[in-house]
Amino acid sequence: MSRIFILAFVLFATLFAVNAAPLELEKRETQFTPCPDFPPDAVGLDIKMTPDPVVLGAVETFDIKGTMKKDIIAGDWLVTCPITAGTVFSTTQEYTAPDELPAKYTIAVAIGRG
Fold it and tell me: What are the boundaries of the signal sequence (predicted)?
């Protein structure tokens, strides 16, 4: 009878050890989604960020693409204007990530006139 208990104990110990082993997590790509408050005619952007996920204190590169729905005739801030409606817009911007980030944070990328 004691052999059965020893065998059962060894099997349970093995099972718990296997379950306790850390699993390799899948890398999750950062997802950029449209803001829910924006009007329906807002430009949808395709954004790729490298490195992904954010590396604290490192330079982040954002490749931003989209098709303009309205003319952008003035501004020249980070891009060269004019950009006509229907034109595929593409820019690469760099930003240095802060040295510290909270557990949850938001990255916003927008195109605006003004």
Answer: 1-20
